[in-house]
Specification:
Blueprint: H1 2-28, E1 37-43, E2 54-57, E3 60-70, E4 76-82, E5 93-98, E6 105-110, H2 136-148, H3 152-166, H4 170-189, H5 191-210, H6 212-231, H7 233-256, H8 261-277, H9 279-296, E7 300-301, E8 304-305, E9 316-318, E10 338-339, E11 347-348, E12 367-368, E13 370-372, H10 386-398
Parallel strand pairs: 2-6, 9-11, 10-12
Antiparallel strand pairs: 1-4, 2-3, 3-4, 5-6, 7-8, 9-13
Organism: Mycolicibacterium fallax
Region (Disordered): 343-369
Pfam families: MlaD
Length: 404
C-alpha cells in the first residue's frame, strides 16, 4: 500500500511538471515565466492614458501601460511593460491614438527601420509631440465647430437655386447621359488604340516635369524675346514702310543675274568641302579675331594709329616635310635629327624647325635644313620694289634660292 502511494505521488509530480507551465503560459501569456521588459517615455501630453492601455508594435499587441504620472518638469512620464524577446529598434517612436470611435485608446510603437540596435530593459523610447495623431475628441470638436458655422438659410438658398437651375432640363440631361454612354462605348472599343496614347502622354508629362527648370528658362527667354519685339515696334514699322521698294530692287537684281545662279551654286559646292575641312581653323580664327581687334584698338592715339613695323631679312632655314591632310589634328612625334646649320643672319620658321628640347643643341643631329631666301641687304636703304618682293616670296614658297 505504501509503495502504491509513492508511485502515485511521483506520477502526480511528473504530470504537474508538464501541465503547470502550460497552464501558466495559457493564463499569463508568453511573459508568464519571464520578467517583462520595462520601457519609459516622456510626453508633453499623455492624452488621458491609463494603466492597462495596450501597447502594439505595427498593430500587434506586445505589452501594456503600467503607470502614467506627472513629472517634476510638467511633462507626463509613461511606464510600459513589453513582452520579453520583443525586438524594437532604437529609432522607434511612440504614438497615442484611438483604435475605435468610442474613444478606446492604444499606444502604438512605430519602428523607423527593420534592423538593430534594439531597445533594452530600462531604455527610453521617443514620443515626439509633432508625430502624435489628432485625437478623436479634437476631431469631433472641430467637426461640431464646422457644422455650427454653416448658415442654414444659405444652404437652403443654394438648394433652391440648384432646383431652379435644373428645372426643365430633364430631356437635355437625359440626352447628355445617353451621349456619355455612347462615348464610353466607343472609347471602350478603341481602348487598344488609346492605351499607347495614354502611356505616351504619361511619359511626356513625366519628361516635362523632369525638365521643369529648362522649361521655365525657355519661357523666360521667350518672354524676353517678346519684350524686345515690342520695344522694336518703331523699327518694324520703318521696315514695313520701306520693304516694298527694297524687295522690288532685290527682284530686279535676281532677274538680271538669273542665269548665273547655277554657276554660283556649283562654286558653292566646290567651296563648301574646303571650308568644312578647315572648321578647326575657322573656330580658332573666330575666337582670335575679336581679341586681335581689341588689341589693335590699343594703338589708337587720339585720331591716329601709332604703331611700329618690325621687319626681318636674310635667308631662312627650312626642312621640306610632307604636309598633313587638312583637318588632321592628331599628335605628331617630334623629329630630333633635324637641325639648322649655324650661319650668320639665318632664321628659322615653322614648328618643324623648332630647337630641340632639354638643351640638346645639335647632338646626334644628322639632317641639316636648307637655306632659302635672299642674302642680307648690305645697305638697308635699298628697299626692293613690290614686284621684287612678290617674286622673292614665290621663290621662297617653292623652296628655291633667289639671286641677289
Amino acid at each position: 500500500m505504501r509503495r502504491l502511494v509513492v508511485v502515485q505521488m511521483l506520477m502526480f509530480l511528473a504530470i504537474a511538471a508538464v501541465v503547470v507551465p502550460f497552464g501558466v503560459q495559457f493564463v499569463a501569456g508568453p511573459a508568464g515565466l519571464r520578467e517583462p521588459m520595462p520601457l519609459h517615455a516622456t510626453m508633453s501630453d499623455a492624452f488621458g492614458l491609463t494603466r492597462g492601455t495596450s501597447v502594439t508594435v505595427r498593430g500587434v499587441e506586445v505589452g501594456s501601460v503600467t503607470a502614467v504620472r506627472l513629472g517634476p518638469d510638467g511633462t507626463a512620464a509613461v511606464a510600459l511593460e513589453i513582452r520579453p524577446g520583443t525586438a524594437i529598434p532604437r529609432d522607434s517612436i511612440m504614438t497615442v491614438g484611438m483604435s475605435t470611435a468610442v474613444g478606446i485608446q492604444s499606444v502604438d510603437i512605430l519602428p523607423q527601420s527593420d534592423a538593430g540596435p534594439y531597445l533594452e530593459a530600462g531604455d527610453t523610447i521617443a514620443a515626439p509631440a509633432e508625430r502624435q495623431p489628432v485625437q478623436m475628441d479634437r476631431v469631433m470638436s472641430d467637426a461640431a465647430h464646422l457644422v455650427g458655422g454653416i448658415d442654414v438659410e444659405a444652404v437652403g438658398a443654394v438648394a433652391d437655386e440648384l432646383s431652379a437651375s435644373f428645372t426643365g432640363l430633364g430631356p437635355s440631361l437625359a440626352t447628355l447621359i445617353d451621349n456619355g454612354a455612347v462615348i464610353s462605348g466607343r472609347m471602350r472599343a478603341k481602348m487598344g488604340d488609346l492605351a499607347p496614347l495614354m502611356d505616351g502622354t504619361a511619359r511626356l508629362v513625366t519628361t516635362m516635369s523632369a525638365q521643369g527648370t529648362g522649361f521655365t528658362r525657355g519661357m523666360a527667354a521667350a518672354a524676353g524675346f517678346t519684350r524686345q519685339l515690342d520695344d522694336s515696334g518703331p523699327v518694324f514699322l520703318y521696315l514695313t514702310d520701306h520693304a516694298p521698294g527694297t524687295l522690288a530692287a532685290i527682284r530686279t537684281v535676281l532677274d538680271t543675274y538669273r542665269g548665273t545662279f547655277g554657276a554660283t551654286l556649283a562654286n558653292l559646292a566646290t567651296v563648301t568641302p574646303i571650308i568644312g575641312d578647315r572648321q578647326a581653323a575657322l573656330d580658332a580664327g573666330l575666337t582670335s579675331i575679336p581679341d586681335g581687334l581689341n588689341a589693335l584698338s590699343s594703338i589708337v592715339k587720339g585720331d591716329r594709329a601709332d604703331f611700329a613695323l618690325v621687319a626681318t631679312q636674310g635667308p631662312v632655314c627650312v626642312h621640306d616635310v610632307e604636309r598633313r591632310t587638312i583637318g588632321d589634328l592628331s599628335p605628331v612625334e617630334p623629329n630630333l635629327v633635324r637641325y639648322c646649320p649655324p650661319a650668320p643672319d639665318t632664321q628659322m620658321r615653322g614648328a618643324a624647325n623648332a630647337p630641340r628640347p632639354n638643351e640638346l643643341g645639335t647632338q646626334n643631329s644628322t639632317t641639316p635644313g636648307g637655306l632659302v631666301g635672299p642674302e642680307v641687304v648690305a645697305d638697308p636703304i635699298k628697299i626692293p620694289t613690290l614686284a621684287e618682293l612678290a617674286y622673292k616670296w614665290r621663290m621662297i614658297l617653292k623652296g628655291n634660292r633667289v639671286p641677289n
